[in-house]
Each structure stands twice: as C-alpha cells, then as structure tokens.
Write a structure and sequence with these properties.
The structure is a single chain. By secondary structure, the protein is an alpha/beta fold. It has a domain at 2-171 and 203-229 and 295-308: NAD(P)-binding Rossmann-like Domain (Rossmann fold, 3-Layer(aba) Sandwich). 40% of the residues lie in helices and 15% in strands. It is built from 11 helices and 12 strands. The protein starts with a strand and ends in a 7-residue tail after the last helix.
Length: 331
C-alpha cells in the first residue's frame, strides 16, 4: 500500500506515520521547507517538500497512492493573522480532497477534531449526534476546523471515500512543538502553574488515535464522524495525576473565570499585540474553558474497534519525554 500523509512532522502525524510504517506501507510524507524532521528519524519514507496552500504542486506526489491521510492542521489558540489559519484548515482541506479525487486516490482519512462538537457548560458528555453549528465554535481554530470538516463531509456526500476522525486531546511522547495540551504539561513541570480554572478535557492516548488512522481505511462509514477519546477529566484532576507521577505539588488555588478573563485580556493585548509574542493566556481560550469538553467514544468503539484506554501511561510517557528532551528539569 502506498499512502500520502500530511502532518507527519507534527505530534499526532508522527505517530500515524509510525503506525503505517509498522504495517509495511510505502509512505510519501508531506513536509515544509521549514519543518523539523526529528520525528521522522528511522522511518523508511519518501519526503515531499510542499505546502497545503499550494496543493497543485502535490499532484505528482498524490498520483499512484492508495490512500491519503490528511493529518496536517494549523493548531494554535492564538494567531496574529487568522487568514493563514483558514487558508490551511479550510481551503487546504478542500483543495487537497479535490486533488485526491482528480488523481484517483481511492480512500481518504481526514483528521478533524473534537473541537467541532457541541460542548456544554454543565459537563454534559457529548457525542457525534449532539446538535452543533458554526455559531457554537469559539475562536478561529475551532471555526476553521469546523469549516474544514464540513468540506470533508460535503466531499463524502458527493461520493468520495472520506473517513472523518475526531480525536479529543491527544497526549503522549514526541510533542515537540508542543501543542497547547503539551504546554500544560511543560508549564506544570516548570512550576509555572500556580492556579487552575474549573474546566474539563478528554485526554486520549496518542498511540490509540494513530492506530485508528490505519483501521479507519477499511472500517466505518464514509462521511460519518468518529470521536476518539479517553478519560473525561477536570483540569484539577489532570494536575493531580501529574503530581502523583512527578511528586511536584498540584496547585490548590482555583481562579474564577472572570479573573482568568481579565488576565487573558491583559496578556493578549500586552504580550500579543504590543510585544508581538504569543500570550500565555488568550480571551478565546478562557471562553472555551467555560465549556467542559467531555465526550463519548462509543460510536468509534462499536464501529471501528477503538479502545478507550486509561490515560495514566500516556501522561507519564509525555512527562518523561519532555524531561528527557530538555523542556523541563527532572523533578
């Protein structure tokens, strides 16, 4: 099997590439000229330098492939120019799917996000059938992923074999950037987490998410969304688990959302707009935090054979990786 994978230099994508390598696939991996290639070490794969913003230049690389696995996305909770995020997550997805149709790639796996689900403020556990609209999306990242997912659904309804996966919050090793979730771990390890807000996430083992990117080629229904999740945990529970693993103290002070919003407003305007640096907190992130991102993966369990795993080992692996690679001192 020959497969074209986007996003293989990123966190989830690097794990996906290794799953396909283990299955004996011939891989063509999309990289950018500025990409770090550390995550591809040891992989027997062809690298293709290109960009989602110029999909036509990928025509020859896609030609002859048995599958497209589109993992790449602009995943940031703060961006100075949101146009670039929509160009990658929406236009790039639409154009890449169109190109795959034109060159005859028979199967596609599209990595969406649980961010496109209809979360509530009361901790309701949502699923793929929970009503949701673009108006429910807070921030440019969520809006762009929602619109990108709509492109995938539209393509599937038109007859393209597109499987849509919605990972919750992946955790594990090799989060080099790191992702916003990885930053929570790094900040905790560096003792930069003096307080917490009342919010919740669903943490999922990145290896199980990666495994589904291979399984989904042959199972499930094109055009359907599949939540890939693990444990529903409050932020305080996550911090307590990291404390149990490392011996570092877990913060005990809970900050009201109003106070967090005031800090985020200041940080976004001072650090972001005046200094031109990425702020530690953003208004959109605090607004998102008012919703408990608790989700069910029953559909993926039933139709794809997905396994909901305890997140302890993945969290421990992430901590060990960050420490081993110099992101934080050893506790």
């Amino acid at each position: 099997m020959r497969v074209f994978i986007t996003g293989a230099t990123g966190f989830v994508g690097s794990h996906v590439a290794r799953v396909y390598a283990g299955a004996g696939a011939q891989m063509r991996l999309l990289t950018r000229s500025t990409s770090r290639l550390d995550s591809l070490t040891g992989l027997d794969a062809e690298t293709v330098v290109g960009d989602l913003l110029e999909p036509q230049k990928l025509r020859s690389a896609l030609t002859g492939c048995d599958a497209l696995v589109h993992v790449a996305a602009d995943y940031r909770l703060w961006v100075r120019n949101p146009k670039s995020m929509y160009a990658a997550n929406v236009d790039g997805t639409r154009d890449l799917l169109k190109l795959a149709r034109e060159v005859g790639v028979p199967r596609v796996v599209y990595t969406s996000s649980v961010a496109t689900m209809g979360f509530k403020t009361d901790g309701t556990i949502v699923n793929e059938d929970t009503p949701v609209s673009l108006a429910d999306m807070i921030g440019h990242y969520k809006r762009s992923k929602f619109l990108g997912e709509q492109e995938a659904i539209r393509a599937a309804r038109a007859g393209q074999h597109v499987m849509i996966l919605n990972p919750t919050t992946p955790i594990g090793p090799n989060d080099a950037k790191p992702t916003p979730t990885g930053r929570i771990v790094v900040d905790f390890l560096n003792k930069n987490f003096p307080a917490y807000v009342d919010t919740g996430l669903n943490l999922v083992d990145v290896d199980e998410v990666a495994r589904m990117h291979l399984i989904a080629l042959d199972r499930g229904t094109p055009g359907e969304r599949y939540i890939l999740g693990g444990e529903n945990l409050t932020l305080k529970q996550i911090l307590d688990r990291m404390s149990a693993i490392t011996g570092l103290p877990s913060p005990t002070m809970k900050v009201p959302h109003a106070v967090a919003m005031a800090f985020a407003f200041f940080d976004e305007n001072f650090t972001g707009k005046l200094l031109g640096k990425e702020p530690r907190a953003t208004v959109e992130a605090v607004r998102m935090g008012k919703k408990m991102m608790f989700a069910s993966s029953l559909k993926a369990e039933r139709e794809l054979g997905f396994k909901v795993l305890p997140v302890y080992q993945a969290l421990r692996s992430a901590i060990e990786w960050f420490i081993a690679h110099g992101y934080a001192p050893k506790p």
